From TrEMBL:
One of its GO terms (molecular function) is ABC-type transporter activity. The keyword Disulfide bond does not apply. The chain crosses the membrane at residues 12-40, 60-84, 111-132, 152-173, 180-200, 249-270. This is Excinuclease ABC subunit B. Keywords: Membrane, Transmembrane, Transmembrane helix. The keyword Transmembrane applies. GO terms for cellular component: plasma membrane. It comes from Winogradskyella psychrotolerans RS-3.
Length: 275
């Protein structure tokens, strides 16, 4: 595994664009640190400081930071599809196979790199969240601090699943721009399935359950939006806005299932393709 990751690192190190995108994808999640210190002055009448609103209290902070940090995954997604596009355009794929790398090892080298960067991103956002929480949170008991740390696991699985999807699209079309365009196509297809399910079942609730098994929606469902939850903490009497924001094992299982399928299909495409 380490040998395969090392091979990918050597390729990425020679690609300046990929290095910049990797740097951005790691740095941008730390904007939550800047967000926590923002003070908004309303014409001298009062000053609003986000860190003092309680949204950075434990355990809710794990939910908030992982949700917003997940939107920065698109930068590394460009790196993933570029890794595949460059292999074909630079003829390095064929050279790797000539040098003794099997097609299975080639796909695994990409997947291991995805897992490695996803793990690094998860550790970084975990450290940032812990630092912000310890500074702003009113709760310092260990049981409360680590109560919803499973959002980090959901964040990691979400990244691995999404990048594996990008890996598959990269293998499918062999061009970075087209691979990213397929994400938009898939997003549209999932909504078409949703409306078809509404038509067949007659209920929106059932349609959302069906959509929850699809790739992009299942990844999104791992970490639901925290806005409603923030409102709930400020207005606990509003029971009508209560919703299920927890991380569930079956949601993780669905995304892991898609991840395994995308990696397998990537290998199958490479195995069948005439290079």
């Amino acid at each position: 595994m380490l040998r395969l990751i090392k091979i990918e690192f050597q390729k990425l190190w020679l690609n300046k664009v990929s290095l910049v995108l990797i740097f951005i994808s790691f740095i941008l999640p730390f904007t939550v640190l800047i967000l926590s210190s923002i003070k908004i002055n309303f014409f001298g009448f009062f000053t609003l400081e986000l860190g003092e609103l309680g949204i950075f209290n434990f355990p809710i902070i794990w939910h908030i930071t992982t949700f917003f940090a997940s939107y920065f995954k698109f930068f590394f997604a460009i790196v993933v599809v570029s890794m595949i596009g460059n292999e074909y355009s630079n003829k390095t794929l064929k050279q790797n196979l000539i040098d003794g790398l099997s097609k299975k090892e080639f796909v695994l080298s990409k997947f291991y790199t995805i897992v490695f960067f996803s793990l690094c991103a998860t550790l970084l956002i975990g450290i940032a969240t812990f630092v912000i929480g310890m500074y702003y949170s009113s709760y310092t008991e260990a049981t409360i601090i680590f109560r919803e740390v499973e959002f980090l696991l959901a964040y990691f699985v979400k990244l691995v699943g999404f990048f594996s999807l990008c890996l598959f699209f990269g293998m499918l079309v062999k061009r970075s721009a087209f691979a990213l365009a397929f994400l938009v196509v898939l997003y549209i297809v999932e909504w078409l399935v949703f409306w078809a399910a509404v038509y067949v079942s007659g209920t929106v609730e059932t349609a959302f359950k069906v959509k929850g098994f699809l790739p992009l929606e299942s990844m999104y469902n791992l970490i639901n939006q925290p806005i409603q939850r923030i409102v709930m903490t400020k207005f606990p009497e509003k029971t009508d806005i209560m919703y299920d924001y927890a991380v569930h094992w079956y949601e993780i299982a669905i995304v892991l299932g898609w991840t395994a399928l995308f990696v397998f299909l990537s290998y199958l495409l490479l195995k069948k393709r005439d290079l």
